[in-house]
Amino acid sequence: MDTALALTWLRTAAAAVELHQQELTDLDTAIGDGDHGANLRRGFAAVLPAVEGLDSAGAVLTKAGTTLISKVGGASGPLYGKALRAMGAALTAGAPFADALDAALAAVQQLGGAAPGDKTMVDAWAPAAAAYRRTGSYTDAATAAEQGALATTPLQARKGRASYLGPRSTGHQDPGATSTALLFRALADAGPR
Ligand code: ADP
Ligand code: MG
Question: Under CATH, what is the fold of the domain 3-190?
Fold first, then answer.
């Protein structure tokens, strides 16, 4: 990933969050507190000016992560923030993009303690990172993230606010897994075919 792609990814992601804000809010209203769309919108609106002029993909993603941590109050801000910072650090260290995605997933799991199947953003990150490692395709990663997000619907939440609902958390798609799928689709839209 070069600097231009990192910047285009974040701009595309910000636009996708804007476009899907209501959907994210509705999902989070069903099994959370209804702030996920607003949280991400506020976060990405702050990210875009913060990363202008940075001159490497690693620096861009690191700064984006730091900005999300400082601007987003909900659980998702620190989780996405740590994920992007881990990606940025990996890229700065010269790691290939597949390793950067794994580092992001590891950061989310270290902070949040969620495993696949707990009905969180991990359920989209994990298949997306695995698909990218298999094929090197952003499009395959996005498709895997979308399938992972869809597959959260029947699950009972074991982490985060939705877990307070117990069995009543079933039957709704997880908001964070849904926004993770948006971020990977934004990467596929931004990146080379
Ligand atoms: P909050 O739950 O604080 O209101 P958001 O609504 O912005 O924060 O984000 C909720 C999303 O965050 C959930 O749908 C879930 O995907 C994700 N999430 C919450 N807790 C965890 C966790 N411990 N590990 C991974 N993801 C989590
Ligand atoms: Mg919420």
Answer: 1.25.40
